[in-house]
Amino acid sequence: MATITIPEPLPSPVEDSEALRKAVQGWGTDEKAIIRILGRRNATQRSKICEAYQQLYQESLLDRLDSELSGDFRNAVIQWTLDPVQRDAKMAKEALKSKDPKRLLVLVEIACASTPDHLIAVRRAYCSLFKCSLEEDIILHAEPPFRKLLVSLVSAFRFDEAEVDEAVAQKEATALQEAIKRNATDEDHVVWILSTRNKFQLRTAFECYSKIYEISIDEDVKNSISGDLESLLATAIRCIHSPEKHFAQVIRKSIEGLGTDEDSLTRAIVMRAEVDMQRIKEEYQEAYKVKLADDVIGDTSGDYKDILLALIGEDNL
Amino acid sequence: MATITIPEPLPSPVEDSEALRKAVQGWGTDEKAIIRILGRRNATQRSKICEAYQQLYQESLLDRLDSELSGDFRNAVIQWTLDPVQRDAKMAKEALKSKDPKRLLVLVEIACASTPDHLIAVRRAYCSLFKCSLEEDIILHAEPPFRKLLVSLVSAFRFDEAEVDEAVAQKEATALQEAIKRNATDEDHVVWILSTRNKFQLRTAFECYSKIYEISIDEDVKNSISGDLESLLATAIRCIHSPEKHFAQVIRKSIEGLGTDEDSLTRAIVMRAEVDMQRIKEEYQEAYKVKLADDVIGDTSGDYKDILLALIGEDNL
């Protein structure tokens, strides 16, 4: 479901490194070459290029890109070139350091829209990069209404197959509804439903919710809970229920209205280009009656636009 | 720190399989040969032997041992031959199914006396063996006073290096003491201290506790909290503070008095023979003024005695 286009035959990591070196050396930088190379390699290939570049030139490719590029284009290229696990660990740290509850949503995305193995890898990387566990930092930096749900969501290691018990789903739909109505979504039993059940089981529970209460659980959260806790809970539910819907919404919100929220736009595209971008594009088209690529073209420009288009598989460089 | 003695030169997995096949075939079983082979191979070597045996004879070595052997000897050989991760996942399942709160201690041992990577591997194995997460089964089977601490302890992924903040240790010693006095050890902030901090940090907090309150935290737990919750908490604290002390105590308790608790004796020796049995033996001698091997010899007999002695490095087969 990835959207990047990998050339055939694929140049070797050494050839790619040499081409990248040419692109960043001397006066001026060849941004298009950088996009053509890095924007068309998957995570494993990018990691091999970083290693080969380091060996060949005794410098870090990431550091070099950081010093040669600027603005939103630099952010997109750096985030994309980073190993996805390291990138997510760093994004989690940035979000926690910012003390901005809105930015905590990225932790929910990492916890609820990743595979169990990716989430564990991020927790491991977090420990080795920052000398403490991700959970310790959440407890230190996040405020009480968000803290508990976040700690449990990032600590999850869900069963990753479609084992569904309809009776349990019905019971838990009711438990969720009662907690939402009582504004008691931080009770242990609610947090455990959201953080220990497999995603297929939870999706069934959310569907039971819609059937029994004639309103979707995210709508109900929106009506009953307010502020940043609502958006944290709703994000968790959306990321579990349908990550493609969630990320289509993130992209749409970053673009609509005056001005663009480049950080959110970059994050969503970089995080999902190799995961489910094809489905996000379909979802986007269906929900907003416009092509994702057209919205990106309308709201961005220059090299930044080009790298985003490359990542969603719509560039013509 | 392991106590098993691996022969040099090491026979190949095929040679070991052939010798094991001879030991289990025909009338009568050669138990000594089984001990001499499996009791002197590490986990990786045992796993290769299982593979080679399966390939050579189209049968599972574990199944064959299960049908040829009996009693405590069988249990010890089977538990030892199992991959340690699978063994721990199965022990966790058995403990949860038993509905006996005393048996939940094995979950605490797995959560608090293992490395973060081993614990994650056990959670992964649990999912694939039992089609649900370990946490889901804890919530289903364990009663409320144990449930919350257990879910958090097994979900931990602690930073695994000696980063200690003395001020935090002091503050958290006080928080722990207050919670113990108020019998409120299931409050979120207490559970988080015990389940998210690195072990070096927690050991410092436990030492601060002793200094400030002139009583060790385990003594205080014993005096203030009663029943199975006390023993769960005390086990968690001991496994974090000094696993060798904990397992020396488990072995001693399984032996002292009339009769022997073979299940606990086997579990402690099998779980720790490749981890820290050398230190457990030293701790045992110091605490009880008797050699662990002498206590094992005094309380067990036959092949069961011999396999235990092999695992603690004291056999003369």
User: Order of helices and strands of chain A, N to C?
Assistant: HHHHHHHHHHHHHHHHHHHH
The overall average pLDDT of chain A, rounded, is: 96
Helix content of chain A: over 70%
- The number of helical segments of chain A is 20
- Poorly predicted sequence stretches spanning 5 or more consecutive residues of chain A: none
Describe the largest sheet of chain A: none
> Structural class, from helix and strand content of chain A?
mainly alpha
What oligomeric assembly is this protein in?
homodimer
Gross geometry of chain A: globular
Q: How much strand of chain A?
A: under 5%
Q: Mind explaining what this structure looks like?
A:
Chains A, B: Ca(2+) 2 binds at residue 255. Chains A, B: It holds the Pfam family Annexin. Chains A, B: This is Annexin. Chains A, B: Belongs to the annexin family. Chains A, B: Keywords: Annexin, Calcium, Calcium/phospholipid-binding, Metal-binding, Repeat. The structure is a homodimer of 317-residue chains. The model of chain A has no long low-confidence stretch (mean pLDDT 96). In chain A, helix 16 (243-255) packs across helix 18. Chain A has helices at 13-24, 31-38, 43-57, 61-68, 71-81, 84-98, 105-112, 116-130, 134-141, 144-154, 166-181, 188-196, 199-213, 217-224, 227-241, 243-255, 262-272, 277-288, 292-299, 302-311. The longest helix of chain A is centred in the middle third of the chain and has 16 residues, at 166-181. With 317 residues, chain A is mostly helical. Chain A is 72% helix and 0% strand. Chain A has 20 helices and no strands. Chain A is globular. The two termini of chain A are 22 Å apart.
